[in-house]
Specification:
There is one protein chain. This protein is mainly α and 304 residues long. It folds into two domains: 60 residues, no CATH class; 215 residues, f41 fragment of flagellin, N-terminal domain, CATH 1.20.1330.10. 69% of the residues lie in helices and 6% in strands. The chain contains seven helices and two strands, in the order αααββαααα. Strands 1-2 form a two-stranded antiparallel sheet. The longest helix has 61 residues. The radius of gyration is 40 Å and the shape is rod-shaped. The two termini are 21 Å apart. Belongs to the bacterial flagellin family. It is found in: Secreted; Bacterial flagellum. This is Flagellin.
């Protein structure tokens, strides 16, 4: 067996193996500390690129989710306003029935009290029209016939998509009635009783007859039918937004899981590898020591 003092191939081989073990150990220790098997393009360029694209979409879907929550809040406000409006118009209808009976009886005292209640209901309607807004958006007092686009999803290739809501039936309800305009379902003059709108009905006005109040009732019933239709449309829009919220939530979870399957480290495997590599590292140190010991034996030949 020969020994080379200038080139110790055994030691070089042992050192190379030890360095490789150390590099592999560093890799698994990094996985345990970060929780990622792929933390950058250098680890796996293809998987890192795919995961980065997916993470971008997950971030965008977070913004979509926030937008949908705001949309749901707006539609919920509209629903509450429309339901309250229906209740108030129902009360108006009852007051008109009472007024019609009182006019027939000639009871002007109770008729005045009934008108006071009608006036209060009219003020409530105006209050609803002016206060039903979320972040400055009011679907009950805008220009009739408008449509609204609500952000519903986003894809990195196709871009954003929207839910289109036709607010024609709701914006036609109050329109700008709270500022005194005579437009909208409640603000415009009636078809049967053309002297006033629902917001300005007065059963104590001069010359009002039982027949006039009957016409007022016809206009109120027509308005009630239109308001109910508007509430139904908003309810359908709410269902669409709720369904989209569920879809976006599930899609976000799926994408996050997919990213995890690509880049997350297997912690059990990494921990097991670290234990094995630490043993291998110790053996490598011992192998290197043994390889270097040959030169020490040669020195002893010279009494060193």
């Amino acid at each position: 067996m020969s020994s080379d003092l200038l080139t110790n191939t055994s030691a070089m081989t042992a050192l190379l193996a030890l360095n490789q073990t150390q590099q592999t150990l560093n890799t698994y220790e990094n996985q345990v500390s970060t929780g990622l098997a792929i933390s950058g393009a250098k680890d796996n360029a293809a998987y890192w690129s795919i995961a980065t694209t997916m993470n971008t979409q997950v971030g965008a879907l977070g913004a979509v989710s926030s937008s949908l929550s705001e949309s749901a809040s707006m539609l919920s406000t509209m629903t509450a306003a429309l339901n309250q409006t229906i209740s108030i118009v129902d009360n108006l209808q009852n007051d008109l029935l009472t007024a019609q009976d009182l006019v027939a009886k000639g009871d002007t005292t109770d008729l005045a009290k009934t008108q006071d209640d009608i006036a209060q209901q009219q003020q409530l309607l105006l209050s609803i029209g002016s206060s039903s807004n979320v972040n400055g958006v009011n679907f009950l007092e805008a220009t009739a016939g408008a449509t609204v686009q609500l952000l519903s999803s986003y894809d990195t290739k196709a871009g954003a998509s929207f839910i289109t809501i036709d607010t024609g039936t709701t914006t036609a309800l109050f329109n700008t009635a709270s500022t005194g305009a005579t437009t909208g379902i409640l603000g415009a003059k009636g078809a049967a009783y053309t002297a006033s709108s629902i917001l300005t009905l007065d059963v104590t006005a001069a010359g009002v007859t039982s027949g006039d109040i009957g016409n007022m009732l016809t206009d109120v019933q027509t308005a009630l039918s239109k308001i109910t239709a508007a509430a139904s449309n908003v309810g359908a829009d709410q269902n669409n937004v709720t369904a989209q919220q569920t879809f976006i939530s599930n899609l976000t979870d799926s994408l996050s899981a997919a990213v995890g399957s690509l880049v997350d480290a297997d912690m059990n495997q990494a921990s097991t590898k670290i234990s094995a590599l630490q043993v291998q590292q110790q053996l490598g140190v011992q192998a290197l020591a043994i390889a270097n010991s040959n030169t020490q034996l040669i020195l002893k030949l010279f009494g060193q």
